Amino acid sequence: MPTEEERVCCRQTPSNCLSTLPDFDLIVLDPLVLMVARRYRQDVLAAGEDDDFNRSNRHAGYRQFILWQHGHLGAGNRRVIPSCCTWRIRDTYPDSFGQYRGFVGGRLG
Prior knowledge:
The chain is mainly alpha-helical.
């Protein structure tokens, strides 16, 4: 990961790594779950659909992971996703140019 802040481990044994759990596949990577999450978010925010399927699913996957592990955080409150999980999401829904923004801290920290 490009920054020290993003070099975070899930602190599990390799056999229990969060990115290898069946729940991770269902909650964070499943395209149908992500479609429902995206549609719900678009409904609430009155936002349009993103034309880039992978980017849209990648960002929905990040949000799903945070919701699964930390619950609703509120505006400006951010958490770093463990790098093992970030790469699993990126490998499943890659950027066509391999360019990723990385963690952006919120207004509150």
